[in-house]
Amino acid sequence: MTPTSSQQTYTELLIQYQPKPIKTEQEYNRVLKVVEGMMSGELTEAETALFELLVLLIENYESCHYFIGESKPVATLESLMHEFDVKPTSLVRVFGSVEIVREVVNGERKISQSEAESLAKFFNEHYSGLSLTSVDF
After folding, report:
1. What whole-number distance in Å separates Cα of residue 30 and Cα of residue 20?
2. Residues 105, 74: contact at Cβ < 8 Å?
3. Comparing C-alpha atoms, which of 23, 17, 12, 11 is closest to residue 35?
4. Residues 115, 137: contact at Cβ < 8 Å?
5. pLDDT at position 6, please?
6. Neighbours of 34 (CB within 10 A)
7. CB-based contacts of 137: which residues, under 8 Å, 6+ apart?
8. What pLDDT does 98 receive?
9. pLDDT (tens digit per residue) in 4-42
10. pLDDT per residue over 63-117, tens digit each?
């Protein structure tokens, strides 16, 4: 099943792909291949609608079969700091001191709502492509 580049209607695409709830690992892998193939090109409006539907089916299957625990704010912060090589001193404007940054990273102190908002703003401004919100922290 590979996506088509011709201008098909949404109904034609539904007939061609016959999307349905994913029940097996084999179906899951098949739908993943279709979605991955669709990600490599420009999609028509109908293909975009099908793509969104397939992604929902994948997400539904994954939520039932691949439990991923909720990320902790500290883990999110540590991951971002590691990925973008952010030193604790770079976050002094957010937390007020390097010591507080270390306390947060070590799990000795929680991230406040205002700090979460400042962290989201900091990472979004300094690293393009991110769209973090305070909820991420």
Report:
1. 12
2. yes
3. 17
4. yes
5. 61
6. 18
7. 73, 76, 77, 111, 115, 116, 119, 120
8. 94
9. 456 899 999 999 999 999 999 999 999 999 999 999 889
10. 888 766 656 888 889 989 988 899 999 999 999 999 999 999 988 999 999 999 9
Give me 46's structure tokens: 């109908």
132 CA to centre of own chain: 10
> Quick one: which of 83, 80, 112 has its CA closest to 96?
112
Tokens of 29: 């892998």
User: If you search the block for the tokens 């393009």, which residue do you land on?
Assistant: 128
Of 86, 133, 134, the closest CA to residue 112 belongs to 134
Which pLDDT value is given to residue 41? 83
User: What residue type is 2 in one-letter code?
Assistant: T
User: How many CA atoms does the CB half-sphere of 121 hold within 13 Å?
Assistant: 10
Tokens describing residue 61 = 């299957």
What are the Cα distances from residue 110, in Å, to 21, 77, 97, 104, 126?
Answer: 40, 12, 15, 6, 23
Q: How many residues does the chain have?
A: 137
Compute the distance between CA of residue 73 and CA of residue 113 in angstroms, rounded to an integer.
11
